[in-house]
Amino acid sequence: MSLGVKSKRVLTRLLQAIPTVFGILVVCFILTRALPGDPAAYFAGDMADEASIEQVRENLGLDQPMPMQFVTYVGDLLQGDLGVAISTGQTVTQELAKRLPASLELTLGALLLALTIAVPLGVLAATRPNSWVDHLCRFLVTAGVSLPTFFTGLALLYVFYYLLGWAPPPMGRLDMMFLPPESITGFYTIDSLIAGDWALFKASLAQMALPLITLALFTLAPIARMTRAAMLQTLASDYVRTARAAGLSRRRVLVTYAFRNALLPVITTLGMVFSFVLGANVLVEKVFAWPGIGSFAVEALVVSDYAAVQGFVLSMALLFVALNLLIDVTYTLIDPRVGEDS
Amino acid sequence: MSNLAINPTTDQRVQSREGYWHHLRYIMAENPLTGISFGLFFGLIAVAIFGPYLVPFDPVATGVGPALQPPGVNHWFGTDHLGRDVFSRVVVATRLDLLISVSAVALSFVFGSIIGCFAGYFGGWTDRISGRLMDTIMAFPLFVLAMGIVAAAGNSIENIVYATAIINLPFYARMARAEVSIRRNAGFVQAARLSGNSELRVLFGHIFPNTLPPMMVQISLNMGWAILNAAGLSFIGLGVQPPMPEWGILVAEGANFIISGEWWLVVFPGLALMLAVFTFNLIGDGLRDLVDPQRRT
Questions:
Q1: Tens-place pLDDT, residues A71-120
Q2: Whole-angstrom Cα distance, residue A200 to residue B208?
Q3: Cβ distance of B151 and A142 shorter than 8 Å
Q4: pLDDT in tens, A187-196
Q5: CA B57 from centroid of its chain's CA atoms
Q6: Least CB-CB distance to B141: which of A27, A32, A320?
Q7: What is the pTM of this model?
Q8: Which CATH number fits domain B9-295: 3.10.180.10, 3.30.1360.70, 1.10.3720.10, 6.10.140.1670?
Q9: If I label A314, which of A188, A235, B6, B73 is the partner at 20 to 30 A Cα–Cα?
Q10: In whole angstroms, what is the distance from residue A190 CA to residue A181 CA?
């Protein structure tokens, strides 16, 4: 019975994503048509004359009314056609697909690291107000909010690469000495583990350490702040007082009663956190020359390769929607209030 | 007679004003950081206004000193690879950075408030359409959307301002909507309506001023974020063009030298950026304490 309620909610949530995706498509479409100047003249190239510009306009369907153009645009997208990246000559879809694993490995790794540090930190800070943990938490939160990611990254590089020599140079995912592992997941760390190659795993982890820490420092601030606030709120609630008065063990009160309820607002804020992480990811990739879709977009921006940038914006937005969906579904599944009252 | 009638109200007003100052003093005393942050804020404004007249060197002149000189007596923050004075460049950049973020936040405050006020007051279709619009903006990772907007609309400082304003818009619209809709049928609003004010006058003359305190908090917290976003955009090469000094681009230029150990090119503009963001965040927290004592942490 309770599973029925939950799966119904999950389904509703999946349906709610449809208008969001539609909105994203409309905005991306507007962005592609808002190019400075005439898009037909742009795609025809510098040497084109009037006739060939008209030809290109017809080929691209730019002489059609806007709603028709939108339908064509969505149709192309469904076939995975995002245009050709001028800088490399390959299709944008290919380029993005090639670089997506690098970005995902970095982003998801940073999120995981941030969560494993921020949530216990927030809980400890809330259970021991004004202790050193609390002050550490406050310090990290303030620093994470005020420090520009690109500055943190460069500062870490200076200390750990130039001064201490612990970190490898910021040259992408793997040292030149190594060959990338056979691609199974596309994540170098996991693939090298599957291949059982310890040296390779260490090398890829060493390359990833600094960008990962940079991104995680920025990410853990909002999570720790929210965890602390939510934990304080649940600890002050009546049901926790009741549980304490009933003589339950401290551990049980903290974990079962306080923490499980405090987790819900934390998960809700994760949506906002994703938005920040995906943005900060671009900056971190630029700093560490990480070959992901962010640095691809930055390179494309420099040479005014619009199709590549638009493809990047679209894929980031879709990734964001997917992550949010994942979070909401998880929320529904762990929410103790769903399923018991019906 | 009339004197008597007026006296109690003025007394009350004086008292409430005194209460306010008392509260302000209490907050300042309890959290000295708030006082410091206001000091930093006025310092930043002063640097933005007077900085360009006070700096020792021309910020774009090359060769005012030897290239890549570490910080010293002549060049407090050192010099860059073209022999430009980093101190002068960092100070002069303050004006541009603040200008970009202030105009962006002002734009999103004005338009966000208008959208939010209409949505909260009239409800119905206005609410649904504006809500959808804001949801669509929020469906993008915001920094990425700003990148896309600047890329599509053209690479200029003006477009950086518009892009930052657009990605901040939903925060103001949502807040204004929430604040207006809880006051839509409050007693004083009904009184204003009964005495014959037009709907727009009720909305903007009577309800909107009441939303200002929480909006002010939002503005100052948002300012720091706007500065970070604008600097991030120019760090990846959008908007501000070299040799114009701006914190983000200064860090980007210095980034090439960090692996060879010339730290001062990155550290000083980065610290300036951090200080500005930190100041606005502290002010935001302080203002929140002042406006909403219950949410104090």
A1: 887 888 887 777 777 777 788 888 888 888 888 888 888 989 998 998 88
A2: 61
A3: no
A4: 777 777 777 7
A5: 29
A6: A320
A7: 0.84
A8: 1.10.3720.10
A9: A188
A10: 9
